[in-house]
## 1
Amino acid sequence: MSLQTHAWPSTYGAESRPRVGFFTDTSICIGCKACEVACKEWNQIPMSIQGFTGKSLDNTVDLGANTWRHVAFVEQSLPADARDNGGDLVRAAQAGAAIDAGVQTYQEGDGFRWLMASDVCKHCTHAACLDVCPTGALFRTEFGTVVVQEDVCNGCGYCVPACPFGVLDQREGDGRVWKCTLCYDRLKDDQEPACAQACPTNSIQFGELGELRERAEHRLAKLQDAGQDKAQLYLADDEDGIGGGGAFFLLLDDPEVYGLPPDPVDTRRDVGEIWAAAGVAAVALGGAIAAAVFGGRR
Amino acid sequence: MGSNMAEQHPVGFQWVVEAKERGAKVIHVDPRFTRTSAMADRHIQIRPGTDIAFLGGVVNHIFEHDAVFEEYVRHFTNGPVIIKKDFRDTEDASGFFSGWNPGDSAYGIDTWGYNKSTGEATAGKSEQQADVSGEQSHGAHGMELTGGDPADVDNSMQDEHCVLQILRRHFSRYTPETVAEICGCSPDDVVAVAQALCENSSRERTSAVVYSVGWTQHTIGVQNIRAASIVQLLLGNIGRPGGGILALRGHANIQGSTDIPTLYNILPGYIPMPHPQSHPTLDKFVKLNGPDTGAWGNLKPYMVSMLKAWWGDVATEDNDFCFDYLPRINGDHSHYAMMLKMLDGGVRGMFCVGQNPTVGSANSKLMRLALAKLDWLVVRDFQPIESATFWKDSPEHESGEVRAQDIQTEVFFLPCAAHTEKDGNFTNTQRLLQWHHKACEPPGDCRSELHWIYHLGRRIREKLAGSQDPKNRPILDLTWDYPVRGPHDEPDAEHVLQEISGRSSDGSFLASYDELEEDGSTTCGSWIHCGIYKEGVNQSARKRPGTEQNWIAHEWGWAWPKDTRIIYNRCSADADGQPWSERKRYVWWDEKEGKWTSLGDSPDFPPDKEPDYRPGRNAKKMEAIAGDKPFILHPDGRGWLYAPTGLVDGPLPAHYEPQESPFKNPLYAQQQNPTRQVFHRPENPYHPTGDEQGADVFPFVLTTYRLTEHHTAGGMSRTVPYLAELQPEFFVEVSPELAAERELEHGGWATVITARQAVEARVLVTARIRPLEVQGRRMHLVGAPYHWGGVGIVTGDSANELLPVVLDNNVHISEYKVATCDIRPGRRPRGRARLDLVQTYRQRAGVKD
């Protein structure tokens, strides 16, 4: 079954619910940060003033223990390839019917665009954080999401380096790890997560993951038809390094433009091979020592 | 234009995003590249304060390319009306219209009127003599017109004195090249916008204009909107689906607080406040303020019903329905005039409710100095804002100009309830009222405005009980009998809504303002809201989802007047009453039924008035409105391309430079709007402007604005952790070029200086701010969000400290959107040295103290 994880739905049996997630369509994000505020309000996350950062209009910087939704602002100059094309992207976009499709984002002549994108925990299909957690605080829910139980987490921090996206983070003065729960409490009451409900333009869409992926494919095709050559889905593929995300994105440029890793991998993916290699090495080393010891007696 | 909708109205902007998905083209014309620009198909940058020039270029294009929607203009507007022969345009008189009187810096409007008509000044003269300026000084609701029909009309619209030809000549110099020279954009930008509008405006298609305070906060604010009205009327975009001019207000329910006003000069439903000299009796008041023809012809029933709602059985025909009980205004008591009077010791006490003038008003220091002259001040807000703490911790304490012990003002802070903690209505831009129910009780001592005002009135009445002094009768005779409930004796908000909606003599609820009577048999607190409680149902609380009705969604909320979702929607059918096109069908004349019908809206027209109805010579009120004249609030039923009355600064918009500008007005010898309201006094110095000596001491253009993350003067956001952290510090936005020129460091500090004040801010260097080429010179913009102040979780200097008080005299709004300034790297001096820095600049620029 597609979308299947190690623990979901198998361990839940009849109690399992459809796997849900977020489709964040950044092409219609207006950077209002309502998602950040709604998330902090609902989940009672502490304030974390970081001061004026100078990173465009972004002053929360990145995801962390106190920021479970984060809106990135990317002020981007015209890419070189468009500049070669006469320097006038609007004319280029017009040719591609981008304006008719309502997706044109570069402005006339000045070669500038402002990308905005709301980031969140990816709720990976292969979630390394969950695998390395020694206490079982991190678990896969009946909705296929990944949640930290605050009353079980002991603050060991193993999950922090395990996350390929840098999402997991220990809260200062508390030590425990806090992250997006995809509003587990709201899901149990058949409510959508706070960020998705607050998003005014429907840039953050919540729903059953399979259905969201279909929707995203349609949207991507529309954008590509309109000449958005670099538009792409991010973490919507079962075959990628994390087996696809429970939260995935439609980006208008490469992931690294938004500060996202271009090719994330489950950090435990190679652990089996590493242990096997270590085993071989150990056996070889043991043999060598034995040979040295016993051979020496000889 | 003049709107940053995505940032300031993100919830409403979802519909723009959706429209875009369905093929709409979004053009953003704005001095800055904002989050709205990022979502637009095209952003065009113009110099702050040049919107009229840009729109003038659009009008010019419409004429040059024969794009006038002629049938619409001929029947529905005053395009064919002949204007008096002695009217002189700004183009003939170097920037002045005829009637200019330099002695009192005001226009006499006699020559602006319709030819062969004498009624223009009916509502004007006496008010002007009474020293009342603003919208009522010329009778905002129009002039007397016999039979509702202009006497001299040329339906071919070729007569050189007809409005359309006057317009054509007036804008003939606003060519793309000239406009580009003024605005700092390219001629192609002007043409592209004009073309896009013309191509998208026809029988089949409509275009909408959205504006916000980027248009209103200028010394030419009202004329900015007039210019848009001209564009939209010429193109046939008013009163039709998908068209219109949408005024997005400064924050939630500002529309509602204008409809049932918190303004000093109007009563509910835009009825002017009476004046002492000219309004001795109700009939005189009605005669001077309600033209005989059109919907305002019924001013008397509106007025009598309002007086009956307020004073009940005491109001009778014999006592003029207590018309004498209404306060009179004897002068300009708008915000800034009041604050200046306060500064001069002429105001003893003040209620400051939901406002933070020491951060939100221009020349904030002047505001603080004024508040310090009060005996008492009541501040109602969520938190003790700067306007409540000014007596102990203002910047003037730091500079040593004032000491707390010298300020005698007694300040009372009353915490208020949030909208979630009270019942009530929000009114949005299209006059739609949506009821909100209380979700929980307000905490602690927090109370709603309704609670405060009701119980304040109740206590005053208890204190006055038994008084025989006639001056107390207006208070003692009020119908102040609202039922209360709950633990805090909260008045019933629905009961207030019922009073506003109105009842007939048998107590039953009225359905529409057509039912109001002038004999005192009906009550109605606000005629435009009449029917909001019809059939005993709170119509504004209807919440039938859009998915369960057609796109007009008539059963969601309630819109004034008469639940009309598109005002003047008679325009959506042609002169004969037939839809302009199938695609734009909305309201039309049903010949068989003999009435106006619609896809689901209330026709904003007398239901059975035939399209070919023509009024008799002496017709009055609605009888005087012809069957092809949709603008029923005007005495002639026409949309006004040209405004013969109502404005103090001219019947047409013309480009004037802002009060402070690095450039000369290239169009007229007259630099600024000649009627702008200036206050020459030491606390409010103005910079030299144009090519005056010293203007180059303040070489850059300053504009103040807001961010999505904060709410206006910060009282509702700097005190809220999750909002405060999103924009924690005051910053200014500058271009890389200006940063290089002034050695400003990205992320570092800068000091912005005007003759009013010096403030410090963090520096955000961004390509979103671009220098413009204007008149062969490079213009730099300094962008300054104004949310910060001295108290709250996040604090900082306030940008509005920098601005002078200078106003549009139509509405007394301040020019927040443009001034001049200097900027230099580093933090500002502390203490006395801050004053010295400002003083140095004043001296260099030759600003008089």
## 2
Amino acid sequence: MRWATRRHCHVDRAACAWLIRRFLEAEAEFVFVDDPDEVPHDATPFDMRGADLGHHGGECSFEAFLRRYELDDPVLWEMARIVHEADLADERYDVPEAPGLDVLLRGLSMTRDDPELLELAAPLFDGLYEFKKRALLLGREPS
Amino acid sequence: MPNRRVSWVLLAYRLPREPSTPRSGLWRKLRRLGAAQVLDGLAALPLDARNREQLEWLAEEVVQAGGEATIWIGELATAAQERALASRMAEAAAADYRSLIADVVVARTEPVGQRKRTLGRLRRELRRIRARDYFPPPERELAQQAVEELGALVEETVA
């Protein structure tokens, strides 16, 4: 299946793409467009104006994915708080990881194109997932 | 030096009078972004990918709340108008820095434990102001210094 999003990805889109490949469809193909009108008819749009998988009720697109696909893994919801703050910085959550993640992804977007950005961000999100999973199981910061 | 104008992204919007929650929510978000309110219903930010994206999502929220919103990209016609807008935005940031500096002065007289917590809060506040400070006024450096000095004071008393 094809998925479409806006060009020049930042943290929310990179996290959504990671989520799609890891939890929804390993072979997912991504298309990058400038405008909602350019979304191919066979592609599912995300993190774009007018898309169901976008920002709603003050939540970011990553949170929309978790709701829509009923991914109730608490580790993913923990990551959702980080992505939310990295993307929106509205201080809904107290997550010190967010400003760092924001800067890392913004820096990558300055030096790499979108497909490369998604490739490079994926192991970062894998690591974040693993860290948060262990933290949740241990009830403390894993070492 | 060639005269290079700042490009702006603008949000033009109209929201129903009632309910007032979307209106105050939008106002809060625009303020957090450091947007200049050009007119009632017209907010401007220097154009970059992040600001554009943030305003696009706000436009979407306005529409979802039953209002109308459009996104514009533009520049001011004269350098003088641009300077006026930039200095208005710099003055807003300067006021925020000044009130932060006043908070630092109060914190210096606080008991040790409380002072440490206040330091954390003021560091976050400094980060928030810096993130929306597009035309840095001299107060930026002063606020930075004041918070660093408070940090050094906390270190001293803890050591």
